[in-house]
Amino acid sequence: MKYDKISRRWMLQGLGGAALTLPFLPSLIPRQARGQSIVPPKRFVAIKSYSAQNIIDWYPSTPVPGYQVRPADDAGQKRDGTTILTQRLAESSGRHSNGDEYFGTWAPLRDFSSTGISRILGSEFNPYLEKMLLLRGLDFMPDTNHNEGGILGNYAHGLAAQPGAQDNPTLDHILAHSPQFYSGVPSGTRILHLMGGLASRGAVGGSGAPSNTFSYAPRDLSDVPNSSVDQVQAHVDPRTAFDEAFQNFMGTNDPPAADDQRSRLVDRVIEDYRRVRDGSRIGAEDRQRLEQHVAFLSELQARLDGLGGGPVAGCGSPMRPSSIDTGGEQTVDVGTLRQTYELLIDVLVAAFACDVTRIATVDVVKAIGRASGLEEGFFHGCDPCGTTGATNWHTHAHNWDQAGPREITVTINEWIAREVMLPVVARLDALTDVDGSTMLDNSIVLWGNELGMNHLNYSIPTVLAGSAGGYLQAGRYIDYIDWNRPVRFAQHNGMVIEGVPYNRLLISILQAMGLGPEDYEASPGAGFGESRNLGKSSAFATDYDHNRIADPLPDLRA
Amino acid sequence: MFRSVKRQVVLGSLALALSACSGQIGGAAGAGDRGGNGPAPESVFGPITCEDPSLAGEAPLRRLSVQQYANVLRDLFGSAALDQASSSLALLPSDGEDEKSFSQMDMRLAQRHVDAFFAVADEVSADTVADSGQMSSLLGSCAGNIDQPCFEGFVRTFGRRVYRRPLTGDELNRYLELFDAAAPTQSVQDTLLVMLMAPPFLYHMETEGSVDGSRLTLEPYALASRLSFHFWQTMPDAELFEAAEDGSLMTEEGYRVQVDRLVSDPRTQDTVRQFFSEWYRLGGFIGFVQNPQFDRFAEAIEIAGLYEEMVAEAQSLVDYYTWDVDGSYRDILTSSLSFARDDRLAGIYGVPAWDGANVPPSLPSGERSGLLTRAAFLVSGDAGTNPFKRGSFIRKHVLCDQLAQPTNLPPGSLAPPDPDPERTTRQRFSDKVAEQPCYGCHTQFADLGYVLESYDGLGRYRTEEEIFDDMGEWIATLPVDSTGAPRIDFDNDAEVSGPVEMLEEIASNEKAVSCFARHYFRYTYRRNERTSDGCSLASIRDAVVEGIPLRNVLTDIAMQPAFRERVLE
Questions:
Q1: So what's the pLDDT on residue A52?
Q2: What is the model's pLDDT at position B505?
Q3: How far apart are CA B108 and CA B65, in angstroms?
Q4: Cβ proximity of A44 and A440 under 8 Å
Q5: Among B109, B148, B128, which Cα is nearest to B195's?
Q6: CA B167 – CA B150 distance, rounded (Å)
Q7: In what helix (H) or strand (E) does residue A157 lie, and over which residues does it extend?
Q8: Which of A249, A282, A283 sits opposite B5 (nearest CB)?
Q9: Rg, C-alpha atoms of chain B
Q10: String of b and e for A405-421 (b: at least 16 CB within 10 Å)?
Q11: A265/B60 CB distance under 8 A
């Protein structure tokens, strides 16, 4: 090669626009892995659940040796019944406006194995405690109430979204269009969007049609971080999800052995294809075909370079699932729901195993909970704007003062933990990746929420599984709340005290996936996503260190 | 336990084709109201019309088909080298699992293709430099002492064969950069690897030639490739290269000479055989069942290798009318000769086996007519028949009529009707779709299949249907009704007396001839036809209507202007 690949890549990005018309050559990635052992690719799953959360049921709250538990007398203030953590993180969270530096606290998750982490994250998760991170004290910066894309960094859409809020692509799309994440074009889809049923918010078509989800895609691929966006629709039907993911899948091959010399020859071949592609008599369709060929060559080269990729042993020959009609927004048949999620997760795991995609979103807009001791299906519908009823998850969340409805929301989250999060975690952990580690080890599975306590966007319960290939230091429960600060607002089962901006979690994930600020920041030093306290009253928590807004979460990295 | 994803999809759609019940088809009649025949389905393509003969066919960038790729490798490196690389070659996904009319229309490119191209290039290049004989053939007398001129000579001469045209100066110079005097053998290996991954090798690059507006007349090397890949499924031979190089290929006379030479080559026979085999889905048989019922039904006929003999007979029929006599497509559809060389198959037809040399034996009078009454098409694999499968195939693939994909199938739609000792296959299938929503659609093809009830699941002619239970015990013998109203033209409700009459009508029908034209066009150009291809299609159709020998029809497509041109975007 006769040019400096790395600097050329950067130059193209700097020019803007050209980067996305060029294939994402892995040869343009820093080649620290060249000639070394195979490095598996990283993968990302985002699972979103809905509505208000009963904080005590997310976090350790049962006495275990070595820990004290805060009183839980429903009197508000700092008496929420959760376990007190005593080990201080080495890196500070920043400084408040008065100059006070503050720190998060942490504990090993295994310390809670005797009881299970919490009611929602029960002992079923014990086999994975060393691979999980439970985070507390992550706060959305703008006031959002119900929001569509907050979990992945878009705060501009949803109920009572703040006018003027930054309307950027969500994290999944930042990853999907980054050459740092995808060295070539995946054969299936850059992101597989899944959803357990129709939502009220702009479903298109009738039952079984795709439904709007929490993901926002860029319109302008030449400048993804600054692009305007479109809300993405997710597959409600496992069969259509499968068809998208496996549209070009044609079986598995053993990956070729790593080889630097041959990689250089492939580089040369890629150049040949680009010369033909740029020929004057190549039509648009043919050019697209040649670009596709280049993308596959790049993927091949990535493997020659030892950058991993390709189907793993668990791929096999996945079966096309049955088509499921999940019905309309308010259809919540328990059997159908359970089968839908099972098949959607089958598709997700197969798609990862066969490397037809490396990103998935799972929108849990419908779920199963328990009412009066019996299983019942629930949908998160619009309430109080028309749809109410016993099976409306949202209705119960609005009756926060009442123990019964609150209990229902907890049982829904218990179900999501066991029948959505846990299967994803367990099955990715059962897949052996190309270097002998598990696929979960090289992934991040994010289970996040749209809200925290009641309908407030503070302390959003957040769980991660997987460490992105050891990038994150997993196995910990980290509480970023500054417990030295005064309580700004308190209600039974929760309170508001400053933690750290949720934006910093997203930055941690982006960096764990190999991206740098130049890949995701809309402007230098801006971090990711809306970071202003738009619409928030100073009576609530607003005193964060915005000088650290572009930093990852403190001490999350290994 | 698993089958490939694509295979699942294909099997799924085949299953649907067997029933083709639909809640949407024929919906004009109410439930329980048979309402006469269902509405005529829309034609898929409309009539063939030639409006602008100056329009050249489009030619999108196409990769070599898997078959072409293997053939070219064999031509470049020899059969032994191809065998040596067979495990790498096997990594290539099979063409034709995307339900196109022909496997070579499969244009999909997946990671697995590129991985396999690399694996093959890697192996062949390594094997070649390790073989002194191969090196001598590639580099000549300097193979033992490869210096810069020797290397350049190799790049020029072998590159011309790999690229199927001379290298440009820029291409030559880029290959010369790979020369390392300290490791010349490695340089050859690297060059081979790159060449075998290069766009002009893996794709049909038709970008050069003289341009007139949006029309490009192919330059001689591209034209040579188009000819050789069309007739032979492989690269040009030395003589064709020569004709391209000396320009004779660009003269009408020189072009005709080459076309005639290519057509006369046995490789063209293979190509024509493949065309009919894929069109009529010969070779997709999944095997005979093994159970007492079938054993009794088959009457101790040894089934090992029987299906292969059936296919060989059908191919011999095509060969005979294409090459041995000046036959036509009509002859293919109406032939009353048997080409069965196998005693078992000849026994099924009730004739002596053909010796392959003399005039083939005539089939019993009034029993069979052409390819659609041959065992290769009729065989079911079990003791029964599926009239819907037979009928829908004729409707869709022989007449090129559209049958909508069934949707909203009632439960159990795809299950064959239950055995009934008092009812024939035709009666049971007919009863199953007697009501809406099935009836409307099934009227479009059911009778085409019912008429073929004159043949059982092994292709034996019959006037009675024997029914056996699961244990092979005889239950009943019922009379076969093979009359029907096939509605070849949807406005024609006239009945036919049996399969010979029906096949005669099909062979005389414009739809069948146009359908032949469409399929041969698709096979030639590796894509579906468009409105702008009307003149090419009309030319083929008219030649068949005029009774021009099939061999000439197949040849004449190369003489059409569109064959030598492409449209630029």
A1: 86
A2: 96
A3: 10
A4: no
A5: B128
A6: 16
A7: strand A154-158
A8: A249
A9: 27
A10: bbbbbbbbbbbbbbbbb
A11: no
Q: Is B194 on the interface with A (CB under 8 A)?
A: yes
Q: Categorise residue B304: left if φ over 0, alpha if ψ from -120 to 50, beta otherwise.
A: beta
A179: closest CA among A8, A28, A326, A399? A28
Do B538 and B49 form a contact (C-beta atoms < 8 A)?
yes
pLDDT at position A279, please? Answer: 83
Shortest alpha-carbon distance between residue B122 and chain A (Å): 9
* Cβ of residue B411 closer than 8 Å to a chain A Cβ: no
pLDDT tens by residue, B110-162: 777 898 999 999 999 999 999 999 999 999 999 999 999 999 999 999 999 99
CB-based contact B452:B387 (threshold 8 Å)? yes
Q: Where are the alpha helices (DSSP H) in A403-520?
A: 403-416, 422-429, 503-512, 517-520
Examine the pLDDT at A60 and tell me if it is beyond 50: yes
pLDDT band of A259, cuts 50, 70, 90 = low
Chain B residues touching residue A249 (CB < 8 angstroms): 5, 110
**Per-residue pLDDT tens over the stretch A401-432:** 788 888 999 999 999 999 999 999 999 999 99
Identify the top-confidence range among A536-545, B9-18, B514-523. Answer: B514-523
The phi, psi pair for A31, rounded to 5°, reads -100, 45
Q: Tell me the CA distances in angstroms from B418 to B129, B384, B409, B436, one per residue in order.
A: 64, 11, 18, 19
Q: What is the pLDDT of residues B16-61, one digit of tens each?
A: 233 333 322 222 222 222 333 344 433 345 677 777 665 555 567 8
Cα angle A215, A220, A222; round to 5: 120
Structure tokens at B350: 């009730």
CA B239 to chain centroid, in Å, comes to 28
pLDDT of residue A197: 82
φ, ψ at A392 (rounded to 5°): -90, 110
Cα separation, A550 vs A504, whole angstroms:
7
Nearest to B8 among A281, A299, A320 (CB): A320
Q: Are strands A374-379 and A68-69 parallel, antiparallel or unpaired?
A: unpaired
Asked if A285 lies within 8 A of B60 by C-beta distance, the reply is yes
Print burial letters for A427-457: b (CB count within 10 Å at least 16), e (below 16): bbbebbbbeebbbbbbbbbbbbbbbbbbbbb
A364 CA: distance to closest CA in chain B (Å): 27
